[in-house]
Design a protein that fits this description.
InterPro entries: 7TM_GPCR_serpentine_rcpt_Srv (IPR019426). Keywords: Membrane, Transmembrane, Transmembrane helix. It holds the Pfam family 7TM_GPCR_Srv. The protein has 303 residues and is mainly alpha-helical. It has a single domain, classed as Up-down Bundle (Rhopdopsin 7-helix transmembrane proteins), CATH 1.20.1070. The protein is 75% helix and 4% strand. It has nine helices and two strands; from the N terminus they run αααααββαααα. A two-stranded antiparallel sheet has the order 1-2. β1 and β2 form a beta hairpin. α1 packs antiparallel against α2. The radius of gyration is 33 Å and the shape is elongated.
Length: 303
């Protein structure tokens, strides 16, 4: 389904909403997600299940195991940096909407894409140049479950803490961005609702004044007609006045019927807020990964 979603983004990229920076960054994140998922399942999950451990994984050349370890770390950095830029994109669109499109024009998105793509390899470059040795090790003889371990435990510990600090800073920025987004959205919605209520109140007051004026004019007209002629009787039917009164009453009932749940539905209908919620969900799952890095053991565990 994820691959179909990415294909859809490419196929409909020419349409107006999908040309935005948000969907471009979402596509980039999707590519990294698919690559990371493929690497994790091929090089970590399958051997952890005991599948083809003796036949394939214990026989893999050292350079291939080294590549797998570096690739998974690099792709994780790419993912988190993309999530960070998505949060900043939503912050710009909702909290600072003035000149948002200019700030996130196509040339800027291209520069951001380059930064995201080279961030992962730059992060693992010490691991590449230091020629650290990784290998598969059996962790359960009965199930033949295996995982990748590093011979250089000090280097692994350095990577663990540097990644934890970097990802924590990125997660904090994302969290503060989404707090600002949701706070700003709610505040603007409340102010807009107050302005609408004030406008309707003024309209009701104006309509009431019109009704009173029309009624007064009708009474003056009827009294004048009676004084001029004593034979006929005056029949006053202020139908327009009644229609205006009914409309005012309907508006008043409609306003009172707008409960808090209705206001929430109206708020949720805003497209920019929906995209922000999607970004927040992505950030939440990336934050779980950050917590996993903190709790990672450096002895005989998946790297």
């Amino acid at each position: 389904m994820y691959v179909i979603f990415l294909i859809s983004l490419v196929a409909y990229r020419s349409t107006a909403p999908l040309r935005s920076g948000f969907f471009t960054l979402t596509f980039i994140l999707g590519v990294f997600d698919v690559l990371q998922m493929a690497h994790v399942y091929i090089f970590l999950r399958f051997p952890s299940f005991g599948w083809f451990t003796d036949e394939i994984y214990l026989q893999l050349p050292t350079w291939l195991v080294h590549y797998a370890s570096c690739a998974m770390w690099a792709l994780a950095v790419n993912q988190h940096l993309t999530v960070l830029f998505i949060a900043l994109n939503r912050l710009s669109a909702i909290v600072f909407p003035h000149e948002h499109k200019r700030r996130w024009r196509e040339s800027v998105i291209r520069v951001i894409t380059v930064i995201i793509c080279i961030s992962g390899p730059l992060y693992v470059s010490p691991k590449i140049f230091l020629q650290s040795v990784e290998r598969y090790k059996i962790v359960d003889n009965r199930s033949r479950s295996a995982t990748i371990v590093w011979d250089n435990q000090d280097l692994l510990l350095t990577f663990k803490y540097s990644a934890a600090i970097t990802l924590s800073v990125a997660s904090l920025i994302c969290f503060l961005s989404y707090v600002s987004i949701f706070y700003t959205s709610v505040q603007r919605h409340i102010m807009s609702a107050k302005r609408r209520a004030t406008l309707l109140t003024k309209r009701r007051s104006s309509s009431s004044a019109t009704v009173l004026t029309a009624a007064s004019a009708g009474r003056r007209k009827s009294s004048g007609a009676v004084s001029k002629s004593s034979k006929g009787s005056f029949d006053f039917k202020p139908s327009h006045v009644h229609a205006v009164s009914i409309r005012n009453l309907a508006k008043k009932v409609s306003i009172r019927a707008q409960t808090k749940s209705t206001q929430v539905v109206i708020l949720w209908e805003k497209r920019e807020l929906k995209l922000a919620v999607c970004g927040f969900i992505i950030f939440f799952f990336m934050f779980i990964y950050t917590v996993g890095v903190f709790s990672m053991s450096v002895d005989d565990s998946a790297r």
